[in-house]
Design a protein that fits this description.
Blueprint: H1 5-26, H2 32-44, H3 46-63
Length: 69
Amino acid sequence: MYPGSSVILIAIVIALDVLAIVQVWKRTMFDTTSKAFWSVVVLVIPYVGAISWLLLWTVARLSGSKAIH
């Protein structure tokens, strides 16, 4: 690994987490329980949670679907 690469990796993970959580809480069709669930998933499983949410969010936006639970 290059010097400082772990810092960059951590910064990327934090940025993905923040982006995913902001997108979760911006969704008006979700109830508070769904938002809390996704927030916990993103925070507890940083890589998988954030990437899962962002992939589902992107697919839903591309397909026009509003059903992400």
